[in-house]
Specification:
2 copies of one chain form a homodimer. Chain A is of the alpha/beta class. Chain A contains 13 helices and 7 strands. About 5% of the residues of chain A have low confidence. Chains A and B meet through helix 3, helix 6, helix 7, helix 8 and helix 11 of A and helix 3, helix 6, helix 7, helix 8 and helix 11 of B. Chains A, B: Belongs to the SIMIBI class G3E GTPase family. ArgK/MeaB subfamily.
Chain lengths: ~325, ~325
């Protein structure tokens, strides 16, 4: 099948949603055109602001995403959304309902929403998501929102590749905050206490503030993670949140951290692609047979797995 | 620091819990002795029956593990338990309380329980867990139970490395079952409906049975996944569960599938170690500088990430 990759990129940049969708499918499916697409996108990337949004289930992530879309649209910004559905065997169901809220925006040509679902390994998402992000960036979206359900570390890894990472919490999740403090502190640039009209919102803000004060480092100029209260269902606090996001963006630029974060994102991306390529060689033609032979010996207790791995690498001349 | 690895393995095989714990720490911490430990264990592995236990949060996994420990002890079998805590930023807290139930068994020298926790990447667990499993196997435990909280695909991957995988459900989680059917069908050898004294247990069993009938393949001899009802808090159904586990074990042996599963487990283990080694080389001394240089160019849009990955691999002579 022949695909006019350059034509698709030009169409996507001209604002045609179908071309954007097609390009994401090409990078998502690991089609033979993946590399051609990546090469064609490359000169056009680096302009979009990338926002990550995560938090425990039930906190109102999709509603908050929807609220943010409206807020950015009010400023006449084009918004792309990647909604990551890990399709865990045990968490797959509840998400579909939430996603419906996002459909409010589907008739707006300046909004593009894509649900990135995977059956099985998050590894697939970990490589497909950055490529999809590059598509939206190259297509000229001003803001790209990456939203994950945030049930596990892998999802947090994905979302923490953003320029600015927003962690959502809600009242009555105090125990979760206690348990999670280390992990959340590491990835959050902005905290949102959603459902702020409910009982316990003040306590959640206090808990968060305490947690932040404990985690603060004394060295170097450090960003003070703000806590924004929102009621996403009524868009209450939307402007405060956008202001906090802008403030963080300005801070990143002023401290040279935006370039640093983006270089880190590129570093992980390149590393992940290289590792996957090497993995494919190890278990591919030739490598697969060697691996089977070694695995049988390991299972029989004739060989330990580390020696087997050395042999596998050596046999395929992956030495330095 | 000098470690007498052979001495530790001999002590572990003589039933000393401290030596078992020390060996697991050595493989968990990626100590310089990791390879020596793996080599020393190798001749002694392959005897233990490995059971995996997973299911959604709140289903009673720790109570069920405790019930199974008692049932195996009543048959005079030695039992090792690896309780996997992914320490996700958002799911870390609730587990600790559950674990307390397992402490009923801590005074029994024929029972060894180890909580495998990781801050951050499940990748660490994915490599440490098989090694810890080898320690318990080599130490002569008749049964090794690997229990995970089962919130994500990665945890399911870990537990599905078992000879027999048990998936627990509970009444009133019908929506979860619907959503999860594909994922659960793939990994489960035995289903348990725990809390079977509660309303809705019959419905959960019916839903499961329907799901199993839809997923059944027509080709080849296939194992009929049994559904066992239990009330783990009172050990009701424990004997039925052990019988189902025995039946599956016998079936695996009769069909040559036990050896096949264990070879698959060894294959994944060797592959994971090899990939990690290659990853370390890519981002290690020399490789790290190349990667940084390439990443900066990718971030600047001068290079696409796939070409960068090719250069990274090429520069370090990982070619075939």
């Amino acid at each position: 099948m022949s695909v006019d990759v350059d034509g698709l990129v030009a169409e996507a940049r001209a604002g045609r949603a179908r071309a954007v969708a097609r390009l994401i499918s090409l990078v998502e499916d690991e089609s033979p055109h993946l590399r051609a697409v990546a090469a064609a996108l490359s000169p056009h990337v680096g302009r979009a602001r990338v926002l990550g949004l995560t938090g425990p289930p039930g906190v109102g992530k999709s509603t908050s995403t929807s609220m943010l879309i409206s807020a950015f649209r009010a400023r006449d910004l084009r918004v792309g959304v990647l909604a990551i559905d890990p399709s865990s065997p045990f968490s797959g169901g509840a998400l579909l309902g939430d996603r419906i809220r996002l459909h409010d925006h589907t008739t707006d040509p300046a909004v593009f929403i894509r649900s990135m679902a995977t059956r099985g390994h998050l590894g697939g998402l970990a490589t497909a998501t950055p490529q999809a992000l590059r598509v939206l960036d190259a297509a000229g979206f001003d803001v790209v929102l990456v939203e994950t359900v945030g049930v596990g570390q892998s999802e947090v890894d994905i979302v923490s590749l953003a320029d600015t990472t927003v962690v959502l919490l809600a009242p009555g999740m105090g125990d979760g905050i206690q348990a999670a403090k280390a992990g959340i502190l590491e990835v959050a640039d902005v905290f949102v206490v959603n459902k702020a009209d409910r009982d316990g919102a003040d306590q959640t803000v206090r808990d968060l503030r305490h947690m932040i004060s404990l985690g603060r480092r004394e060295t170097g100029p450090s960003w003070r993670q703000p806590i924004v209260r929102t009621v996403a269902t009524t868009s209450q606090g939307a402007d405060d949140l956008v202001s906090a996001l802008d403030a963080h963006h300005d801070w990143l630029v002023a401290h040279g951290d935006l370039a640093r974060r983006r270089a880190t994102r590129a570093r992980r991306e390149v590393e992940a692609i290289a590792v996957r390529e090497l993995r494919a060689r190890l278990s591919g033609v030739g490598g697969g047979e060697t691996l089977d032979r070694l695995a049988t010996r390991v299972a029989a207790g004739e060989l330990d797995p580390f020696t087997a791995a050395d042999e596998l690498i050596g046999e395929h001349r992956y030495q330095r």
